[in-house]
## 1
Amino acid sequence: MEWKDRRDSENVEDARGEQSGGYSGGGGSGGGGGLGLLFTIGRRFGFKGVLVALVLGGVLWKMGLLDQSVLDGGGRPAGLSQQAKVGSSDQERFAFVKKVLASTEDVWTAEFARVGKRYELPKMKVYRGQTQTACGTGNAAMGPFYCPGDAKVYIDLGFYDELAQTFNSPGDFAQAYVIAHEVGHHVQKLLGISTMVAAKQNRPDYNEWSVRLELQADYFAGVWAKHSMQYFKLDRSDIEEAMHAANAIGDDMIQKKFQGRVTPKAFTHGTAEQRMRWFKKGLDSGRIEDGDPYQMAYQDL
């Protein structure tokens, strides 16, 4: 993946130097992954803690319906604590995310225009520890997340160490896929899909709608990848990095890792196979209109 000479987004806020209340607090879940948080809860509280976080916290927080601070009490994973110091690798990551966000701006502006719509650019905030969002208190232990309330993607760059070490998914395009997935949630907001799914929160099958939402965000990440092949000079190994990351963060893989067994009723993001398949569907199509998981039977996803 060649990215260093590509343009920077002007919509990235560097808040790494802000005083954010440290790393001592923070629980809840958010964004498309919530991976660091699941790692912390699973390690400290076991299956019941993970299940409560997934069902009661993750999707509601992401929709802006639950303030993350009501779930405070979990700790920041020890593996991320060294990222408190800004070094050369951290600065390179900051440069990287600006270029990835810029590419999503170009791809989605063109794709929205193709279907007669106008794309509104999201913001990205790079922070450390904790930060205030329109969805409540954001915590770095959640991993990258998107808040529809302020149309911002949030990320602590130390998450990429967690992605590589805990989830065995290193590589720059794996990192880019994570951002593209969160931007996919922004696309869903602009299309009114997030609001449609949020309206189903009291239904007994709400988790199934959450899975559909997340798989579509993976599809949109694939659409972005399709249109970025030439721009970033991607090769097969880059795509394999993204596929490996999608596999690693499937609900079944996370449950196996933390509880030793799979509980399908607790799924909120989709299985590893589903996440890889929907990313690949987007990569093959490259069209915003071909990724509709809402009209098909849940078992066919």
## 2
Amino acid sequence: MKRIIIIATLLLASISAFAQSGKSIYQKYSDAENVSAVYISSAMFRMIGKIPDLNVEGSEVNLAPIIQSLSGLYIISSENPKINSQIKADAEKFINGGEYELLMEAKDNGETVRMYTVGTEKVVNSFVMLSLDGNEINFICVDGKMNRDDLDKLLADAMK
């Protein structure tokens, strides 16, 4: 019985090692034709986070703690109809496999934007935005340990 539990545990661990991530989606599509890609590392976020009084204009939200807590930003923007469906499928597989919670969905004139997070009541470990508009798809993934209250304030201010 112990042997079966150990084998099952190892099997589950190996499956999760092959799971999609924002980084793997970025690496898979960043060099494709008609795809724009941006990656920002944790080192860059730490450097930006050292800027004093890094606030959103007209708000009391200080961006420095949020920015310093980020470990990676991955952006893929594609106008390549040949791979857009693959990007969408990989992004949805990543979102569904990571127990992400849908924060918001907006639809307007054929464009759909969805925002997701995964984490706890206090900390957001990952934020994902997927935007679909005709022949264009945008995938944004922000990883880190962001304070949920600060992130909620930031998103609320951005929506004004």
